[in-house]
Design brief:
Elements (H helix, E strand, L loop, with lengths): L2 H28 L5 H28 L8 H7 L11 H28 L3 H23 L5
Length: 148
């Protein structure tokens, strides 16, 4: 696998991560309900972490010699994450974000495999860290939902 395949995969990770950060920020602004006091700061911590990740991913793309996408139109073409619904309950927001982290984890896994195949251990390591972060956040979000 080539460096170009790795940077292409990273661009998809970047776009999906940015889309998830924006969705999380949207829910931070618009969450209502009984659990607002806990969800509002939790969502803020999550979008802060995602925006930090966006920077790391973009810098890795640059380190590999490619330009990082950085516009809404570029991200819209590259991302496969569904946009947030305008009105949702707090539990629907939490479930949507948990699913979003699962979705981004699959994009990250594809990039990790591309990097490993190309012998790019630095990118593979970055993706392993991102995968762990998405798995943990998805678990925390699912744990916030009522048991049925």
């Amino acid at each position: 696998m080539s460096k170009k395949a790795v940077t292409t995969a990273l661009k998809h990770v970047l776009a999906d991560t940015y889309a998830l950060a924006l969705k999380t920020q949207n829910y931070h602004w618009n969450v209502e309900g009984r659990h607002f006091p806990s969800l509002h700061p939790m969502f803020e911590a999550q979008y802060d972490a995602l925006f930090e990740a966006v920077d790391e991913i973009a810098e890795r793309i640059r380190a590999l010699g490619e330009k990082a996408p950085g516009s809404f139109s570029e991200f819209a073409k590259l991302s496969t994450l569904a946009a947030p619904k305008s009105t949702q309950s707090e539990n629907a927001m939490v479930a949507d974000l948990a699913a979003g982290h699962g979705h981004v984890a699959s994009t990250v896994t594809a990039a990790m495999k591309a990097a490993q195949k190309a012998g790019d251990e630095a990118t593979a390591d970055l993706m392993i860290g991102r995968l762990a972060a998405h798995d943990k956040t998805a678990w925390m979000l699912r744990s916030s939902l009522p048991s049925n």
